[in-house]
Amino acid sequence: QVQLVESGGGLVQAGGSLRLSCAASGSILRINSMGWYRQAPGNERELVATVTSTGATNYADSVKGRFTISRDNAKNTVYLQMNSLKPGDTAVYYCNALLTTPTNIWIPYNYWGQGTQVTVSS
User: Which of 7, 25, 35, 113 could pair with 95 in a Cys bridge, judged by C-beta atoms 3.0 to 4.6 Å apart?
Assistant: First the structure.
């Protein structure tokens, strides 16, 4: 079994910062990429940022220059440093990992965390 456990959400004032963490554990062969998505009430889940095993990153235009994604491959952990937060960043943030397991070695599968609430007050 694979688990993604997130931490670091909370309530912050506009202009503040938060750091999210997500640790993957279980029967993991290889993690291709890890990332963060978010979903605000009434909206679809959207990409925030991703990072590959080699460190290549991708960001949504709305967070470029404010958010930084990083990854510790040895710990199977991904981080999201969020600075200059805006009320529009309020959402549930979900961790994602595209990975293979001993029982599924050829086709990477998407795993999701349970989500962590980020609320930015104006």
Answer: 113
pLDDT (tens digit per residue) in 15-73: 999 999 999 999 999 999 999 999 999 999 999 999 999 999 999 999 999 999 999 99
45: three-class secondary structure by DSSP? coil
Contact (Cβ atoms closer than 8 angstroms) between residue 49 and residue 65: no
Running DSSP on this structure, what letter comes out for residue 122?
-
How buried is residue 111: exposed, middle or buried, by Cβ count under 10 Å (0-12/13-18/19+)?
buried
Q: Which pairing describes strands 91-101 and 104-112: parallel, antiparallel, or unpaired? A: antiparallel
User: What does the alpha-carbon distance between residue 34 and residue 51 come to, in Å, rounded to a whole number?
Assistant: 6
Indicate the residue type of 30.
Answer: R
Give, in degrees to the nearest 5, the angle at Cα 60 between 56 and 65. Answer: 80
CA distance 4 to 96: 8
Report how far residue 25's alpha carbon sits from residue 41's, in angstroms, rounded to the nearest whole number: 29
